[in-house]
Amino acid sequence: MKLYVDDTRLCPEGWTLARTCEEALEILRAGQVTHLDLDWNLGQGRDRTGISILHWLETAVRTRQVPLPEISVHTADAGARRQMLELARQIGKG
């Protein structure tokens, strides 16, 4: 499954949409996500962002709760994008 996480943008065809951090984590916990495309700002405050999802994923992959999906980032925030891509790279190395 391809999971697209964004609170405002339209979901690309062929992807499953999660509008909130909680929705995304629920879907990820099922272990069927092959591709993950994240926005930074999910409209839920600083503790529920795209990077929050990546932090959860980092632990879940390391403890083998879920397989590592292919990760991409579509946020318009350049600083957040760099931070998210760096964390995604670190998860892939683990």
Q: What's the end-to-end separation, in Å?
A: 22 Å
> What sort of overall outline do the alpha carbons produce when their principal axes are compared?
globular
**Assigned CATH superfamily:** Response regulator
The CATH C-level class name:
Alpha Beta
Poorly predicted segments: none
Element order, helices and strands?
Answer: EEHEHEH
- Major beta sheet, specifics? 4 strands, parallel
Secondary-structure arrangement, i.e. CATH architecture: 3-Layer(aba) Sandwich
Cross-sheet strand order for the largest sheet = 2-1-3-4
Q: Estimate what percentage of residues fall within beta strands.
A: 15-25%
Instruction: Please state the CA-atom Rg, rounded to the nearest Å.
Output: 12 Å
User: How many individual β-strands?
Assistant: 4
What CATH calls the topology is Rossmann fold
Counting structural domains, the number is 1
> Structural class, judged by helices and strands?
alpha/beta
Average pLDDT works out at 95
* Helix proportion range: 40-55%
Key words describing this protein structure:
Rossmann fold; four-stranded parallel β-sheet; 94 residues; single chain; alpha/beta; 3 helices
